[in-house]
Amino acid sequence: MTTVMNRRDLEFLLFEWLDVASLTESPHFAEHSPETFTALLELSEDLAETYFAPHNRLGDTDEPRIADDGTVTLPAETGAALAAFAKADLLAAQFDGSVGGMQLPLSVFQACMAFFQAANTATTGYAFLTIAAANLLCAHGSPEQVDAWVRPMLTGETFGTMCLSEPEAGSSLADVTTRATRSADGSYRVVGTKMWISAGDHELGNIVHLVLARTPGAPAGVKGLSLVAVPKYLPDGRRNDVVLMSLNHKTGTRGTTNAVLAFGDGTHAPTPEPGAVGYLVGEERRGLAQMFHMMNEARIGVGLVAAAVGQAGYRKALEYATVRTQGRSLTNRDPASPPVPLTDHPDVRRMLLAQKAYVEGGLALVLRCAMLVDRLRVVEDDQQRRRLGLLLDLLTPIAKSWPSQWCLEANSLAIQVHGGYGYSRDFDVEQHWRDDRLNPIHEGTHGIQALDLLGRKVTADGAFAELTAAIRATVAAAERLDDLQEYAEALDDVLMHLGHVTSLITEPEHATGGLANAALYLEAAGHVVVAWIWLELVVAAHGQEGRFYDGKRAAAQYFFRHELPKVSAPLDLLASHDRTALDLDPRCL
Amino acid sequence: MTTVMNRRDLEFLLFEWLDVASLTESPHFAEHSPETFTALLELSEDLAETYFAPHNRLGDTDEPRIADDGTVTLPAETGAALAAFAKADLLAAQFDGSVGGMQLPLSVFQACMAFFQAANTATTGYAFLTIAAANLLCAHGSPEQVDAWVRPMLTGETFGTMCLSEPEAGSSLADVTTRATRSADGSYRVVGTKMWISAGDHELGNIVHLVLARTPGAPAGVKGLSLVAVPKYLPDGRRNDVVLMSLNHKTGTRGTTNAVLAFGDGTHAPTPEPGAVGYLVGEERRGLAQMFHMMNEARIGVGLVAAAVGQAGYRKALEYATVRTQGRSLTNRDPASPPVPLTDHPDVRRMLLAQKAYVEGGLALVLRCAMLVDRLRVVEDDQQRRRLGLLLDLLTPIAKSWPSQWCLEANSLAIQVHGGYGYSRDFDVEQHWRDDRLNPIHEGTHGIQALDLLGRKVTADGAFAELTAAIRATVAAAERLDDLQEYAEALDDVLMHLGHVTSLITEPEHATGGLANAALYLEAAGHVVVAWIWLELVVAAHGQEGRFYDGKRAAAQYFFRHELPKVSAPLDLLASHDRTALDLDPRCL
């Protein structure tokens, strides 16, 4: 059996391309070395294969359910896997030493996470959300809150959630109605219903829910939202008034509980005042900005999930295509000759190469963003920090969306390579496809990411220039290498096209029309960015011999010839200020 | 609640576009009238909504299972629905009066089937396969075989299957190993294992399996295959030696039994000679050609399934987007204003319009092909028949593949429109998406269809010229209509591009390279063909007022502006004789 993630590829990305070793020159990461990074990758691979991969299907078939006593039942393997993850200190890995963390670069940590997400994204979801919650509390919580909640989160005793959506407010956070009222003792009483809460209930430990709520007198819209931490169990051990109303049953990632939670419906009222007891994080009415702190890293994390699940499918399809024989080559009509491996069929090779280009390109993009987070942490020059921040902000919606779209396509191709077997639940690839379908929806839908990119990120002063400069630098490096000039030229051309279209559609008189086609812009910009990433990868691989590097060159060739030319049509459409969707009367549909 | 299929659209396609009424001028269809066609559409809608749609989810959750006595258990609703279908004479509808049929045009019958496939493709699968088997027996079976099996099939007492694949031979029929040996009494004894047999076992009635098998001394490869009918119960009522080995559990279309069947393993041996008793259909070694008779209509039928399931998802997404409110328009920043319906968001309208263009375009393509079958039946001029046959042959792999690819994408967009709700199993769209994922796999995978189109169909003498002539005729009609000239010109240009590329890549020295990228050719040709279909539809709608026709114009505008330009890049790639996949060493993957 193949492993679910290619460690060689991660090492190439981290050490040969991103040069994470250079981070250890800064005081913040000085306690690390390439050897500790490598050891953590090996440990992660081992834990992922031992504790996470084996129950991936079980988590799908034995969905979380509500037992007679109202508690949520999970397979024992889920808890055991998360305990092993915690015991290896991986929950603490990316956090500062001051809170008990390992102070690991995010790029290295995300590479470690890739093993777990590929092995079992549903079980890893509990860790993912806890890390995100701890991250937010570290940034905006008081020292007491950090001590009370972050420390037990990093040891696996307490888990975290993000409670944003409500039954009537999914993408529209402006319409959140959950209320948080300040009590005499300075704590808050929270009343409302939250929907789609991943890891929303379980018996793995205490849970601290980070809840977006509205305080009395707060303005309407997102500016009136505050962030309140609501633990399932209060500091004195009593149950808080957070009640599991029901579990949502999804098409994939079934192993992650997804809950409707009622806050303060009176079932477990801990105080005479109605409401679940909560504690304000930071200041009132700063909730959305604080939540976005978490959301930005979470978006990169979602991109990683998509790429990792895509990779798991790709590797299984590749293994299957290598051992499964079927038919004969196009030029051999002799039925008496033995059947050939599926990889002998060019169309199968094309499907595998497409998967490789999508999943390895997506993974590289995500790690590139994580490396920007790391560099932002260690860079000392303000101007440089500002520039890195602009680039990271611009790339974040792409790092979330591009893998969510194309690694899902990779999962579909992995099914196709398997033929009928791929459609059966005896093979893993159909589950990977269902699991990966979540990623264009949560943490901001594809359409929301598109509005973020075109409506905010590319219009930020200097942001697009930063992207252009970064891509041009790679183009310049590639132009000096004989066999990469074709790609350098193609990327330079399409970058110019993208820049031209960006200017056109962000002009004030065209802005609304442009936003109507923002998804097309997101997708075109994503392909340009991933072409850039592929060019970076083959520049890094230049002069290196062997199959691993030949594979990178083949995938880059696929991307530049088969994929990048796809962007011309949508860019031309955007430049035409097409109003097909904008002007449509929906009553004609 | 919305209905699953748009009857108004089917009536437009049949009467206003295809002019099925003209078929009744021929003796073969003379007993019908537009009124009987309309009555059948209404009946089909009623039966589909009453008997098929209500248990669509039940068929998914209560999968067929093997009971303790070895029989296959299905929900009672499945049998009741099929009984209602049979009672309405729909199993017999497309067959000649001489065998008890209704002698209905295939185009009208497929339109009827669209309701059932949209309502519940898994339950309809049992009827679909029975009709296909009866069709094949009518074409190639003896009068006695027709009497023995086709007549009870048309009344719903007997069901049919196609047994092609084996565990080691899915796409490669040349490697079929099941053996059929002639017995002294002229019947055959069949021994072997067949895999992926849809509707392969159940208790709904007798089952006649149409089995591809190899007779002693037959040559290797597909030329050695014979077609043998193997009933589950013999004419004397005894059990034949066809044994259910296991059920396959799929990601979708779970309600259709999918079986591994052992023929002649001795469990129910009816005769001293080993093997299941079978009866040769037609002559020995003609099995594949005979099976393809069935396969061609089945491929059109698969395209219909894809389009119908896509339509079900589209209509549910449209209804949801109309009633669900969320957020505010892009230009309204006032959070105190009420939320707007999802259809007020241009990106949602774009996703709905894309779905409409895919599912209505796919449906129209399928009905166009069915109409070609009808015209082939009534045309008297040999030359004309030959030309229609060439066009139908060329369109068949596209009619199978294009809806399978793009209506699946429509189903994914239907999930996206629903947001988190779309990912939950409380809504139907995730099931439609899983169900529709089957269609690029069965009845010849996407890659197999591509090889058929490029390797056989477009190279058939005069075939591409027929397509060109048909498209040019539509272009000429559109050029005379002011507001369609833009589309006419665009289609003419891209047709020229397609023709040029077709010549280039079918030149002998490039043929193997071209076949390596056959899937790209299939997809590009598919988009050109569907653009032609959309131009036909707006020509038919020209001068007509009202929202229905405006909707057709909007979808055509979407297709011509957003979709058709996508074909330039793959056509250019094909013209470059790209060898990326062809030359790839799979050990680099």
Automatic annotation (TrEMBL), chains A, B:
Q: Which residues form the Acetyl-CoA dehydrogenase-like C-terminal domain?
A: 468-585
Q: Mind telling me which InterPro entries this protein's record contains?
A: Acyl-CoA_dh-like_C_dom, Acyl-CoA_Oxase/DH_mid-dom, Acyl-CoA_Oxase/DH_mid-dom_sf, AcylCo_DH-like_C, AcylCo_DH/oxidase_C, AcylCoA_DH/ox_N, AcylCoA_DH/ox_N_sf, AcylCoA_DH/oxidase_NM_dom_sf
What positions does the domain Acyl-CoA oxidase/dehydrogenase middle occupy? 162-263
What keywords are annotated for this sequence in UniProt? FAD, Flavoprotein, Oxidoreductase
**Does Flavoprotein count among this protein's keywords?**
yes
**Acyl-CoA dehydrogenase/oxidase N-terminal domain: residues covered:** 75-157
Domain spans labelled Acyl-CoA dehydrogenase/oxidase C-terminal: 286-452
List required co-factors.
FAD
**Family to which this protein belongs:** Belongs to the acyl-CoA dehydrogenase family.
Q: What is this protein called?
A: Acyl-CoA dehydrogenase
- Originating organism: Actinomycetospora flava
